[in-house]
């Protein structure tokens, strides 16, 4: 209950900021072009609060907080005016095509500028990140077939530098289901740290909402060098009852060879009934049988086998680092962050439309609310990073050539610029209605995906 309220609070904060900035772009551009603004509204539907400013512009907060609008003088479809009708000089339709295009494009542009400024702040403050060091490689996975090894660090993907797992994940998901293998530069954190190039094939892979990208590829991030020797055996646990003790090394479980702790954890989690274990102690091999207990979370909704053992973790130097920049470098890096996020969204949108990525990955307001709450729980900087990513998303998706969006309005203006004719009012009406139906259908589908993922 509390987590839901927390998510809702930061969803409202995020949505309020993004919508305000978007509509502010339209508003300021309209003022700059000499267009009279009748209403600046945050939200749609019935007006809950309104205040009229000295210039006659009404500021309003409306009941449905899933958008907003700027209502300008004479921006209705042309069928509202006869061909002889005289427009006011301060009306939207009286302005040149360039001015109208500027007013419409200003909303998405302001969202992208907001993202850039947020990234500047994030880069100035600094954020703790996890270096892209591999903690485990799942057997028979794409990562294993590529030759990735435990404690390898990914330095670049197709020539693009990688600083943390967030960078790696964004680049990897952008190349999912592509026929051309990726070129990865990796360096081992073992031995002499020699670098090498490997080829990772992601063709035929499809990410579903319930899947983790790295697990799909066959990777687990490293949190340190995990010992393969038991350092803890709970005195009230099944492993202790079976005779295991600190210093033992688990060699196999149920006949399957165990070469690292992650593999041991997976084998225990998948076990059903008795576990036959082979251990190495003081150079000698011993056999034992463990009868796991079922341990559940506080709600009793998730249970898993428990044997009561643990291992030590030897830290890797500077595995967690703080990325921060000086003023000039922060500006440059913010540009890179914004460009990379923009390209990622464009690529992902294209792959969704072309069917390369499942439509099940489309997220709606519930997923965004969850993301807002989770990022805020990690700290102020993480929330700003989340806000920047969503702002870029909003800016670019608003430029899609769907009539009800800004991109659709730009499409009508482009048609008029190329043909010299205003689009037929009937055609505009039909296309706008079709676009609205598409957006509503897509929104409902996204909410369905959100509910299914809960």
UniProtKB/TrEMBL annotation:
Name this protein carries in UniProt: Zinc metalloprotease
Signal sequence region: none
PDZ domain location: 204-283
Annotated family: Belongs to the peptidase M50B family.
Family matches, as CDD domains: S2P-M50_PDZ_RseP-like
SMART domains tied to this protein: PDZ
Gene3D superfamilies for this protein: 2.30.42.10
Catalytic activity, EC: 3.4.24.-
GO cellular component, one term: membrane
UniProt cross-references to InterPro entries, sorted A to Z: PDZ (IPR001478), PDZ_sf (IPR036034), Pept_M50_Zn (IPR004387), Peptidase_M50 (IPR008915)
Cofactor(s) needed: Zn(2+)
Membrane-spanning ranges: 6-29, 101-122, 378-400, 429-448
């Amino acid at each position: 209950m509390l987590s839901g309220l927390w998510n809702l609070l930061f969803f409202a904060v995020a949505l309020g900021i993004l919508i305000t900035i978007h509509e502010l772009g339209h508003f300021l551009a309209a003022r700059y072009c000499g267009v009279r603004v009748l209403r600046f509204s945050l939200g749609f539907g019935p007006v809950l609060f309104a205040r009229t400013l000295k210039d006659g512009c009404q500021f309003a907060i409306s009941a449905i907080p899933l958008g907003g609008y700027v209502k300008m003088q004479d921006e209705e479809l042309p069928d509202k005016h006869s061909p002889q009708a005289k427009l006011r000089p301060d009306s939207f339709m009286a302005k040149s095509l360039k001015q109208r295009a500027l007013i419409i494009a200003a909303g998405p542009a302001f969202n992208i500028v907001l993202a850039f400024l947020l990234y500047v702040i994030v880069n100035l403050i600094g954020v703790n990140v996890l270096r892209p060091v591999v903690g485990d490689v799942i057997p028979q996975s794409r990562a294993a077939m590529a030759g990735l090894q435990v404690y390898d660090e990914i330095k670049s993907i197709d020539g693009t530098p990688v600083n943390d797992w967030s960078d790696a994940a964004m680049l990897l998901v952008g190349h999912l289901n592509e026929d051309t293998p990726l070129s990865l530069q990796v360096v081992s954190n073992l031995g002499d740290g020699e670098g090498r190039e490997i080829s990772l094939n992601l063709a035929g892979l499809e990410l579903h909402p319930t899947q983790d990208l790295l697990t799909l590829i066959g990777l687990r991030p490293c949190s340190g060098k995990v010992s393969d020797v038991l350092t803890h055996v709970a005195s009230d646990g099944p492993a202790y009852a079976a005779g295991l003790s600190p210093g033992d090394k688990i060699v196999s479980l149920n006949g399957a060879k165990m070469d690292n702790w992650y593999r041991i954890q997976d084998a225990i989690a998948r076990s059903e009934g008795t576990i036959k274990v082979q251990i190495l102690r003081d150079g000698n091999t011993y056999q034992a049988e463990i009868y796991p207990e079922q341990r559940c979370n506080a709600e009793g909704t998730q249970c898993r086998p428990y044997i009561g053992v643990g291992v030590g973790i030897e830290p890797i130097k500077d595995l967690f680092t703080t990325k921060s920049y000086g003023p000039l470098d922060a500006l440059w890096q913010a540009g890179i962050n914004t460009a990379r996020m923009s390209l990622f969204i464009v690529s992902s949108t294209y792959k969704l439309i072309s069917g390369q990525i499942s439509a099940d990955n489309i997220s709606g307001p519930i997923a965004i609310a969850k993301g807002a709450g989770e990022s805020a729980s990690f700290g102020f900087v993480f929330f700003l990073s989340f806000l920047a990513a969503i702002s870029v998303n909003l800016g670019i998706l608003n430029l899609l050539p769907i009539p009800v969006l800004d991109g659709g309005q730009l499409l009508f203006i482009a048609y008029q610029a190329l043909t010299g004719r205003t689009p037929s009012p009937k055609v505009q009406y039909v296309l706008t209605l079709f676009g609205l139906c598409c957006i509503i259908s897509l929104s409902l589908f996204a909410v369905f995906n959100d509910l299914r993922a809960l």
